[in-house]
Amino acid sequence: xxxxxxxxxxxxxxxxxxxxxxxxxxxxxxxxxxxxxxxxxxxxxxxxxxxxxxxxxxxxxxxxxxxxxxxxxxxxxxxxxxxxxxxxxxxxxxxxxxxxxxxxxxxxxxxxxxxxxxxxxxxxxxxxxxxxxxxxxxxxxxxxxxxxxxxxxxxxxxxxxxxxxxxxxxxxxxxxxxxxxxxxxxxxxxxxxxxxxxxxxxxxxxxx
Length: 208
Known about the structure:
Blueprint: E1 2-9, E2 13-14, E3 21-22, E4 26-28, E5 33-36, E6 39-40, E7 58-62, H1 63-73, E8 86-89, E9 101-104, E10 108-115, H2 120-126, H3 131-138, E11 143-149, E12 151-153, E13 159-163, H4 171-175, H5 180-189, H6 195-207
Parallel strand pairs: 7-8
Antiparallel strand pairs: 1-4, 1-8, 2-3, 5-6, 5-12, 7-11, 9-10, 9-13, 10-11
Helix pairs in contact: 5-6
């Protein structure tokens, strides 16, 4: 398991008229990049209402899922196209548990926080029919990461799973149809959850 690329915005580009400029266009970096609590040095977030902050400091997407999309869409999915900071190889991001902790390289540690929810900026970027719906249906959302330990990262750095919490709710489960029993185990596990994910789990359990 390793980082294929580390991607940072180099130039803001026009997004949909509702949002204006966007930092979704990430480009791979040759040198090592410093990782702080709010993400990669030199990166930026335009829509701070819906993106960024400690719980969305980094966005990781798997090469294997990008390859799947490439075959599905009949086009290349180059690193950074989805706005990801990390393109990974050999790591099942969809199967990662909420609260799982990874070490990247020798220094950086991150926690898996939430699946990526597609938005109008992402749809504008892709220029594919019904993109938001198709992205949901595919169930390959990638994961937002919280930085627990700062340091630097670079292409080729190994990724190690340091710990996995005692529940069964993966990025894929949280993104798709949510099972009440699994949501209850998630809540009972005591894992650190983003407030909106905790509320979602509580609603699923209450409706059961």
